[in-house]
Write a structure and sequence with these properties.
A: 300 residues, alpha/beta, Rossmann fold, B: alpha/beta, 39% helix
Chain lengths: 300, 405
C-alpha cells in the first residue's frame, strides 16, 4: 500500500509544544521518523538541535526511550545499545542514532565510520541543517561554499561541503538514502524500508533552518522543495548497491527540468555575499552530481 | 570457604584481569588496544571467539568509543567491561565523566602507564591520577591476585552503589609479570556476584529520556513534582562516593569469607602497631615498601607501611587512625600534580589536618615513566628524611624527586 497522509500511523511519538524554532524542518522530519518506527525504538542523540527539541529535565517532548550521549560518541553509543540488547537476547527493537551535520560530518565521523565498518545493526539519521545551528550557526563540514555563518561572517565559507552520504556508501553498508523534510512520506517510506534491513543503515535528511539560513519561518517547505527542484538536494536510495531516484527527484530526471541553483540561493540571506564565480562553481558541482545520479539510476 | 576447589594458576596481571572479567560473566566488552593493556583485550576476545565467554566483544575504533559502547550497553541492562592505559584513558576523559554522571556500574581496568609527551610506554600512575575527579571509584592492586579479586569485587561494589569502578594496576610490573594466582571457581564467583540488576533500563514500554539538559535549579515535572537541579544530581554522586567506603569494606569482607582473602579495609597495613615511621605508597610500590620497611627495621628503625588500596573515595578517617602514632610519614608518589606535589601526599596531608597528628611529612616523586624504584631507594629516602624529625620541620613546600640510575 502506498503511504499517504491518510494511512500514516495516527499515533504521535513527538508531542506538540517542543522547544524548536518556528518553521523547524527537524521537528517535521523527526515526527515522521518516529512514526515509521512505531515507537519500537531506542534513540541515542548527541548534543544538537534535537537535544533542544527533547526538552529540559524533568520534561521531555518524546514518548520513546532516549539516551543523550556526548557529541563525538553517537555511532559508538548506538553500537553499545545494539550490543547490550543482543547480549540480553532482546529482539524486535530498532536502535536509532540521530545527529546533526556537525555531529556527523565533523566530530562524530570517527565513531560513525567505525560502527559502519563493524556493520553494527542500527539506523543512523543525519539531519543536515548545514551548520552548528544549536550553538548559533557556526560553519560545519556541511556548510556550503559561499554561505555566511557565525565563523564565516564576512566572506562566507570558502570551501565546498563534504558529501557524507557518498562517504557512508563507500563503507559498503546495505542501505543508504537521502530524504528531505519537505517530502515526509518519502522519508517515512525510507525509514520503514531501513527498519527491515539488518546492518548499518544511513539516511541523510535535508532540514532547512530558517534562522540559520535566513529565510522566513513560513518558507521551510518551499525552500526544501526548491532544493530538490534545483538538484541542490537529490532524493535517492542505494539498496545493496542498487541506486534509485525517488520521490520528486524521479520525475525531474524524467522530464529533465532541473531549475538553476541561483533560484535556490537567492531565497536565502546566508548567500547574500556570494560571488558569481561561487555560483558557477556550485552550479557545476550540482550538475556533476546530478549526472552521476542519472548515470547510476536503475529506475529511469 | 565454599566447597569447590579453587586452582592456582601462573598468570600475568593482564591475564588475571581478563579472568576476573570472565568470572564476573561480563556481557559486553568494548576496548581499543594500547600498550601495556592490549593482552587483556586479546585474552577476552579469545574467550568470546572460543565460546568460553558468552558476551558481545566490540572491537571499537577508539577508547572514547569503547566507553561509549559500555555506557549505552549498561543503560539497556548489560554488565560491561573495558580496559585502557595512559593516552587511551585520557582520550576517554569525557566519557569517564559521562558514565559516572549517568551512575552506570561500568568496570574499567587501568593498566597504569606514563603519559606523553614525550612518548613513554612504561609505568607510572599519572594516567589514573589525572582522572581523579571524574567520579569513579579507584582501587589499586599490589599483586596479580589482587587484580583478579578486585575486578570481581568491583562489580559487586559498582552495582550496589551505582558508581563505576576503575581497577588500577602497574604496567609491566604487574601487567606483564607472572605470579601464582588463586583462581576461584565460576560457581563460587556466581554465589558471590549475582546477575546485574540495572537501576534503570531503556524500554519503549516505560520510555525515559536520560541525561537531558538539566538546569541549575530544581524544576517541576508534568505532575507538579519538584525534581532535582544539576547541583542536586552532582551532590548525589558525591554522597554515593562518600558512602561507598562502607560497601567497599563489606564487599571485601564477604569476599574474604568466601575465598579466604579479606579486603575488609581500604588500606593495607604492615607493621604499623609500633611504627614511628610510616611509608605510604600505592599499587605495586606498596609491596616493595614492605621490603624497605624490613630493611630499616634491621637497622633499628621502627618502620611500617601504609598501602593505599582505595584512592577514591579517599579513606580519610582510616588514614588518620593508621597514622595516629607516626612521627614521620614518607609518601611516595608515581605521579605529580605539576606546581604542587604528589597526589597521594596531598590527600594524606588533607586527611591529617585537624586530627591532632603532628607528624613530619616528606613527599618523594618516584618511578615516572618506568624509572627504576626499588626497596633500596625507598629505604634511602626514609633515611634521608630522618634529620627532619630532629629539625621538626613538618612540611616541605615541594616534593623531592628520586631519579636513581
Amino acid at each position: 500500500m502506498k503511504t499517504s497522509p491518510v494511512n500514516l500511523t495516527e499515533k504521535e511519538y513527538l508531542l506538540p509544544g517542543n522547544r524548536v524554532c518556528p518553521g523547524c524542518a527537524l521537528s517535521l522530519a523527526y515526527r515522521h521518523i518516529l512514526k515509521a518506527l512505531d515507537g519500537q525504538v531506542i534513540v541515542t542523540v548527541p548534543a544538537s538541535c534535537l537535544t533542544v527539541l527533547h526538552g529540559m529535565y524533568p520534561v521531555t517532548s518524546v514518548t520513546v526511550p532516549c539516551v543523550n550521549t556526548p557529541f563525538a560518541s553517537t555511532g559508538a553509543s548506538a553500537t553499545g545499545l545494539v550490543a547490550g540488547l543482543k547480549a540480553l537476547g532482546k529482539k524486535d527493537l530498532t536502535v536509532l542514532a540521530i545527529a546533526g551535520d556537525g555531529g556527523t560530518h565533523d566530530i562524530g565521523i570517527q565513531a560513525l565510520s567505525g560502527a559502519a565498518e563493524r556493520q553494527s545493526d542500527f539506523i543512523y539519521v543525519c539531519y543536515d541543517n548545514e551548520g552548528y545551528m544549536n550553538t548559533g550557526n557556526q560553519r560545519s563540514g556541511s556548510t556550503p561554499l559561499g554561505a555566511i555563518s557565525g565563523t564565516t561572517p564576512i566572506l562566507g565559507k570558502q570551501q565546498n561541503q563534504k558529501d557524507m552520504t557518498e562517504i557512508m556508501e563507500a563503507h559498503g553498508i546495505p542501505y543508504v538514502a537521502t530524504a528531505n523534510a519537505s517530502y515526509p512520506l518519502d522519508l517515512y517510506e525510507k525509514v520503514r524500508k531501513a527498519k527491515a534491513i539488518e546492518g548499518t543503515r544511513f539516511i541523510h535528511v535535508f532540514t532547512p533552518c530558517p534562522p540559520g539560513w535566513r529565510f522566513p519561518f513560513s518558507d521551510t517547505i518551499r525552500i526544501g522543495e526548491l532544493a530538490v527542484q534545483t538538484g541542490w538536494d537529490v532524493l535517492y536510495e542505494v539498496e545493496n548497491g542498487a541506486f534509485r531516484l525517488t520521490s520528486a527527484s524521479e520525475p525531474i530526471a524524467r522530464k529533465g527540468n532541473l531549475r538553476p541553483v541561483r533560484e535556490y540561493l537567492a531565497e536565502q540571506g546566508r548567500f547574500k555575499n556570494i560571488t558569481e564565480e561561487q555560483i558557477s562553481e556550485l552550479q557545476a558541482r550540482v550538475n556533476a552530481r546530478w549526472q552521476r545520479c542519472l548515470d547510476r539510476a536503475t529506475n529511469l | 570457604m565454599l566447597g569447590s576447589k579453587a586452582g592456582t594458576q601462573i598468570l600475568d596481571g593482564n591475564h588475571a584481569a581478563a579472568v576476573g572479567a570472565k568470572l564476573s560473566r561480563v556481557q559486553v566488552i568494548a576496548a581499543y588496544p594500547i600498550t601495556p593493556q592490549s593482552p587483556v583485550t586479546e585474552k577476552l576476545s579469545e574467550y568470546v571467539e572460543g565460546g568460553n565467554l558468552k558476551a558481545e566483544y566490540v572491537a571499537v575504533e577508539s577508547e572514547h568509543s569503547a566507553l561509549a559502547v559500555c555506557s549505552s550497553a549498561s543503560l539497556v541492562g548489560a554488565r560491561t567491561f573495558t580496559a585502557s592505559s595512559s593516552h587511551g584513558l585520557a582520550y576517554m576523559h569525557e566519557m569517564l565523566h559521562w558514565v559516572a554522571g549517568t551512575r552506570l556500574p561500568v568496570i574499567l581496568a587501568c593498566v597504569n602507564r606514563a603519559i606523553g609527551a614525550p612518548w613513554n610506554v612504561l609505568n607510572d600512575q599519572q594516567d589514573s591520577i589525572s582522572q581523579r575527579d571524574t567520579g569513579w571509584i579507584q582501587i589499586y592492586a599490589r599483586t596479580n591476585q589482587e587484580i583478579l579479586d578486585s575486578v570481581i569485587q568491583a562489580y559487586k561494589i559498582a552495582e550496589t552503589v551505582y558508581v563505576p569502578v576503575m581497577v588500577c594496576y602497574d604496567g609491566y610490573i604487574l601487567s606483564h609479570t607472572e605470579m601464582p594466582v588463586d583462581v576461584p571457581s565460576p560457581r563460587d564467583v556466581d554465589s558471590f556476584l549475582p546477575p546485574y540488576k540495572p537501576h534503570t533500563i531503556l524500554d519503549p514500554a516505560n520510555p525515559r529520556n536520560y541525561n537531558l539538559v538539566t538546569l541549575a535549579n530544581p524544576r517541576v515535572n508534568a505532575e507538579g513534582v519538584l525534581c532535582h537541579g544539576y547541583m542536586e544530581i552532582r551532590y548525589l554522586l558525591q554522597e554515593a562516593l562518600q558512602n561507598a567506603g562502607e560497601t567497599i569494606a563489606s564487599v571485601g569482607r564477604e569476599f574474604g569469607g568466601l575465598f579466604g582473602r579479606s579486603y575488609a579495609s581500604m588500606l593495607w597495613e604492615y607493621s604499623l602497631d609500633d611504627a614511628e615511621i610510616v611509608i605510604v605508597a600505592m599499587g605495586s610500590l606498596a609491596m616493595e615498601a614492605i621490603v624497605a620497611a624490613d630493611t630499616l627495621r634491621d637497622e633499628g628503625h621502627r618502620v611500617g607501611v601504609l598501602g593505599l588500596r582505595v584512592f577514591r573515595p579517599f579513606p580519610k578517617s582510616d588514614v588518620v587512625t593508621a597514622l595516629k602514632k607516626a612521627r614521620l610519614v614518607v609518601v611516595f608518589d608515581k605521579n605529580i600534580s605539576y606546581g604542587s606535589e604528589g597526589a597521594t601526599c596531598s590527600e594524606i596531608k588533607s586527611a591529617l589536618y585537624g586530627s591532632g597528628a603532628n607528624a613530619v611529612i616528606r613527599n618523594f616523586v618516584v618511578g615516572l615513566g618506568g624509572r627504576d624504584i626499588k626497596a633500596r631507594e625507598l629505604a634511602g629516602a626514609v633515611n634521608k628524611s630522618l634529620p627532619a624529625l630532629k629539625e621538626g620541620v613538618l612540611n616541605d613546600e615541594y616534593p623531592e624527586w628520586i631519579c636513581h640510575i
